[in-house]
TrEMBL record:
PANTHER family: PTHR45033, ZINC-TYPE ALCOHOL DEHYDROGENASE-LIKE PROTEIN C1773.06C (PTHR45033:SF2)
Protein species of origin: Periconia macrospinosa
Pfam family, one: ADH_N
GO molecular function, one term: oxidoreductase activity
Protein name: NAD(P)-binding protein
Gene3D superfamilies: Medium-chain alcohol dehydrogenases, catalytic domain, NAD(P)-binding Rossmann-like Domain
Domain Enoyl reductase (ER): residue ranges: 21-350
Amino acid sequence: MSEAIPSTRRAFRRTDDFTQGSAKVKLVTENLPASLPPTSVLIKVHTISLNYRDANIANGGNPWPVIPYGIPCNDAAGEVVAAGSRTINLKVGDRVAPIVDTENLTGRENARSWLAADEDGVLADYLVFDERKVSRLPSYLSWEEACLIPCAGVTAWSALKGVGFGQSVLIQGTGGVSMFALKLARASGLRAIVTSSSDKKMKALQDRYSNPPLSTVNYATYPEWHRKVLEITNGVGVDLVIEVGGSQTLIESLKSTRRGGVISQVGYLGKQNAKDLDELVPLLIDRRVNLSVSRGINAGSKQDLDDLCDAMSAVEMHLDDIIDFRFPFDDADEAIEYVWQGKQVGKVVVEVD
């Protein structure tokens, strides 16, 4: 439904103050354009979800350059409240989300531009985007569920490509991408194994996903956790690893993968140390593992987002069971700290209204 077009928006911008205990974002009021570009839409944001990347950038840990004092976050869901004069595919009332890499429309583009890094993100109550960079979201989902899809969902979707019914996947951790991957894996008939350092978190997951029983491995209890993975898989190893740790965990992941298997490198949560990779090349050769870093933290293309939404809509998959905690918009700084401390099991959502 059309509504009065606002002249300003509320947004959180990073403070770029990385000292412990300081506020990582500051609420500001900014002008919106007096008129929309012909092919752009104005989106009223209802919900935003956080990823580890957001907390890492806010705390100065991102390995790539970011614009100073930028707006965090790249997972959002909202509705079109105004459209430019030459928009073709979107109209007022559509439920939508901007794509994470706004240059990645088909997966074949050379350029890239990541939300909340190369350009401002989505931690605001209104957004303006060219319609080419916006996808429709499934209409049956709540706003809280819908905002999980653009980054965490598409990253998990892209990381799981190439594995089929009856195969096995090792999923590291209990963050947003990992829990979305677990959800998709079980829906696709894959055998999933989840690693965590928290018995409490693993017990909660086993209670939530009890049929069929979920296999878990505590990597703090078993530093050589590949041995437990091999034990679970009868000495074979998994077909796919969703790798979120980086150099600190990659060798163990290789040892957990069957010969000829796949590792999708989607994160860098662990301490990065090149010395941890001394065994990398020999293991790659010995185990013939396909190490895919192209399915990284920039999620996927607009086409990938559209495909995921179509797949979810076909079975009306819900996502409420992977939402860990909800914060009001004004408490965005607390939400970022919650993720930074690693308290979540699943996704953290910021409710704008």
